[in-house]
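Annex B.
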Amino acid sequence: MLNQSSPSNDLQTGSVQLLPAVSLDNVIFGFHHNELTVLLLQAKSNQGWMLPGGFIGKEEDLDSAAVRILTARTGLTNVFLQQFYVFGSAKRNRKEHLGDVLQTLGIELTAESWFMQRFITIGYYALVNYDQVIPHPDETSLACSWQAVRELPPMLFDHEHIIAKALHALRLQLNYQPVGYTLLPKEFPLKSLQTVYETILGRKLDRSNFNRKLLSYGILEKKEKHYSGASHKAPFLYSFREDMYFKALENGLEKDF
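NUDIX domain-containing protein: predicted structure tokens.
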């Protein structure tokens, strides 16, 4: 539970004093049913949706705060988060939304409360395997669930804009990120890997060109079994050769598939 302290008007969570005017939001991407998804919380106060975010301790490193906040709000652990942008628009705060959320926690707000002043927020993003996480909502939320990026529900604050920026950052860094390794199961058909790239990039890729370039890196190992979910002739399954894959990512895969 969060408690407002006095007379300094700082916010505390347990014994941790929080930093005024700075917040943090996590954009967690997953991949399910050929859809790029994002993990969102539904607010109890007004049923709008938001990113799992929060405030930073005065003596806390940013990266540590991002991990703590994500775990506290969703139950997710062992997630590698990467900072991607700072959001500083003078008009980005929606005070009516923030007031609703904080009142759910029993926090009494006044015009002088630093919550109601201007905030900048630091964005982090991560890629996780949809099938390996079981998210849980925190005490301020009705639900914690995956939502399709291409069809987001009504969002609070400027969180739709933050998701768009995170997706843009992911596209720019795509050839340095282990997207297939992170988002797909251990064994997969090449078509699924192509679909991941197409979904993130928002465009179709030539199948033969994509397969030729990926296989030329030597980062994939062909299995002696077929994909069981195919309706026609079952394709072979592949897995990543981890050492070669991560070495290739250090220099970046080719920009164009």
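The two ends are 49 Å apart (CA to CA). The longest strand covers residues 16-32. Further annotation is deferred to the next reporting cycle.
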